Amino acid sequence: MSNENNDMQKELAELVSRHTDREGPQVTAISALSFSRYSSPHCHDGVVAPYIINQPSIYIVVQGIKDVIFGGEHFRYGLPNYLVSSMNLPIIAEVLEASNENPNLSLKIGFTNHQILELLNDDEIKRNSRKIKRGLNIAKLDESLLDAILRLVRLLDKPGDITILAPLFVKEILYKVLSSEYGDSLKQIVIDNSPTVSIQNAIQHIVNHYQEALRVEELAKIANMSVPSFFRHFKEITIMSPIQFQKQLRLQEARRLLITSTIDVAEAAYLVGYESTTQFIREYSRTFEFSPRKDLKRMKNMERE
What we know:
By secondary structure, the chain is α+β, with helices and mostly antiparallel strands. It folds into 2 domains: about 5-190, Jelly Rolls (Sandwich); about 195-305, Arc Repressor Mutant, subunit A (Orthogonal Bundle), CATH 1.10.10.60. It has 13 helices and 11 strands. The protein has helices at about 5-20, 115-120, 120-130, 145-155, 160-180, 185, 195-210, 215-220, 225-240, 240-260, 265-270, 275-290, 290-305, and strands at about 25, 35-40, 50-55, 55-65, 65-70, 75, 80-85, 90, 90-95, 105-110, 135-140. Strands 1-2-10-4-7-11 form a 6-stranded antiparallel sheet. Strands 6-5-9 form a 3-stranded antiparallel sheet, with no helix packed on it. It has a two-stranded antiparallel ribbon with strand order 3-8. A hairpin with a 5-residue loop joins strand 1 (about 25) and strand 2 (about 35-40). Helix 4 (about 145-155) runs antiparallel to helix 5 and helix 8 crosses helix 9 (about 225-240). The longest helix is centred in the C-terminal third of the chain and has 19 residues, at about 240-260. The protein is globular and about 55 Å long. The relative contact order is 0.12. It comes from Anoxybacterium hadale.
């Protein structure tokens, strides 16, 4: 790693630290840019932060390390890597390194479908129309992209420049991401005849109706695919079957309800669509490594630390 890279990373961490005034996620004066700050290692997404990635985005940990669990796989990242996500995905994210002296600091830059489409030409649309790419990936943060991100974050110290320059810098960042090894995962979500768009429609249906009984035949119809084709494409993009995807949504919503309200385990299970509390506890424990009651106690102890 070059000295220039080290200097840019250090400056980026200092800027994020200075512009975060509390624990957890927080917005900035730049609409596409948000930060998060955690001073202790723990699992937070699904408890105090949104548990679904809900737009095409990149995530960069500028200080510390995070571990994202997606479809049973672990995606550990920190500098010099970043996370690329293309669509609605249920994740569990854990802060692995953090203290009061060295908090875990990260930033997110979100993109709209319109911004992505604006940067594609006809040839790229044709090339990507039938591609299938996983919706979550770890990419290498090169010096050019790091420089563009740093220039965007620096605008927070020059608020008068944000209106004019921030859209240009975001466009530059997006162009560099689209040109990277995982850029196709973003390109394919805006191409009308791409299988990914069809799967995205089915994913949105699951997100909107996760409490209800799931019928793969109905989802395949929404995606305008045969059941075998739908099942194969869905798993290629999300690493999960539709049933597993729904289960992740249910369990993470139940976890949020248990942490943020006074309902008991049986009620939480019922509200997210489980008919059997025993099955809910078994699947919750398998996913989060603790029973609901033990997990709730553990998370509340972390909040007091």
